[in-house]
Amino acid sequence: MAKNTSSSYLFVFAVLALFAVTMMSEMPVSMAACQVTQLSPCLSAISQNAYPSKACCSRLRTQVPCLCTYARDPNLGKYVTNPSARRVAQICKVAVPKC
């Protein structure tokens, strides 16, 4: 069962990464810094309830201006606004904007 769960998370991450790459080709230059794949160091902290790494917290801080954009996206919103993501932001001492 654990292998299926890990495979599911890997699949979700791959879909999100592909979506992000696709969206980047359509984004204006000012949005170029918003790359959901930059949050990949946070994947285990969000999906497996692990403690966030320093890399995760650092990347999360750089992506704060993008969080509302991610939250409004129908494909990404449920991952950005879930309780695990909020827990990671709290541990990283990142103020999540109200969107």
TrEMBL record:
Signal peptide (UniProt feature, chain positions): 1-32
Keyword presence, Signal: yes
Entry keywords, A to Z: Lipid-binding, Signal, Transport
InterPro entries listed in its UniProt record: Bifun_inhib/LTP/seed_sf, Bifunc_inhib/LTP/seed_store, nsLTP2
Presence of keyword Signal: yes
GO molecular function annotation: lipid binding
Any one GO BP annotation for this protein: lipid transport
Occurrences of domain Bifunctional inhibitor/plant lipid transfer protein/seed storage helical (ranges): 34-99
UniProt-recorded name of the protein: Bifunctional inhibitor/plant lipid transfer protein/seed storage helical domain-containing protein
Species per Swiss-Prot/TrEMBL record: Papaver nudicaule
